[in-house]
Amino acid sequence: MDIHEKYDEYQKYIGFLKSDVCEQKYFKKIREIIHQRQLVSFMNDSKWIKLLHEVEQLKFEPAFIAKRLTEKTDIEYEQNFCNKIPYYLGNWQPFYKEAMPIFLDIEYVLVQPRLTKYQGRFVNDLIIDISEQFNAILIKLNIPYVMEQQCFKIMAYQAA
Fold it and tell me: Which of 3, 137, 151, 140 is CA-nearest to residue 59?
């Protein structure tokens, strides 16, 4: 599936949600949070789709934490995530494939572009690092980020 088809598919599913009465309350809540906290958006649906498409081309899909506007920040959990090299992959698919949340609700994403693979009892784990490739994607797509410990923090919103 090319990037245009992915974008059309995303728009179709987000359209279904926006027409649902219960989901309209959810979208209204997100807009209220953005207004109350006076947030400025750095990302849009097309940037998110392009990012997901590019990440699929990497050696592996890196683990991530998506911090949503509608939830509280768990600083300890985020620090632990950034301090340890994960042994699991991230699922870089849109919400309708049960992976990332709805893009509008993502405040930021912490990405750990390293992976540890068990090699055996007497051999050190193999560490695969795709930080340079991931950084190149963010630069290519002009996606704002900051480094926090060993993690990339992709900013979707920031206070004005």
Answer: 137
Domain ranges across the chain: 3-159
CA distance 158 to 81: 22
Contact 106, 92 (CB under 8 A): no
The predicted-structure confidence for 100-139, as pLDDT tens digits, reads as follows 899 999 999 999 999 999 888 889 889 999 999 999 999 9
Sort 129 into a burial class: Cβ within 10 Å, 0-12 / 13-18 / 19+: middle
* Phi, psi of 115, deg, nearest 5: -140, 135
Longest dimension (CA), the chain: 57
pTM of the model: 0.91
Cα distance between residue 72 and residue 89, in whole Å: 24
CA distance 130 to 123: 22
The residues, any chain, with a CB within 8 Å of residue 3's CB and separated by 6 or more, are: 49, 50, 53
